[in-house]
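Mods, move this if it's the wrong board.
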Amino acid sequence: MKLLTKDIEKKLPALYSQEEVSNPKIIVKFFHPLSDWSWYVTEGEKVENGDWRFFGLVDGFEKELGYFHLSQLEEVKVKGIGVERDMYFGEHFLNEFRGTKIEITIQAKEWNRLLAIARERQETKEGVKDNTKTIKEEVEKAIGAYIN
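Not the wrong board. Structure tokens:
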């Protein structure tokens, strides 16, 4: 299967042309049928050596935006099977696939500090009240404030 057709080449916006676009259109999706890896291309340009450099979302071990080359995709072989182009992908936009889960590891000392902040806020708001759901919400707010 040809990964990059002339039709796709014509549709690809130039690299960096989508920087101000908050939710760019995905022009082509590549995937490996024997893995969970997918590449969602939003921009691309032919480089001096004839290869193509793409920018888009790589969904592999993690989801991340980044650059990759057509030659890299063509080199991937698992049990003799290479990366394929999703011919039935349709029209999609980047934000449909960007959802990521952020895991935060907090040491016990920091957790206790955040819990104390949450309890203090709770007492200030409503008097002393043991409402686990509200405490959880306050801890989430405290974590958000702590991270930012």
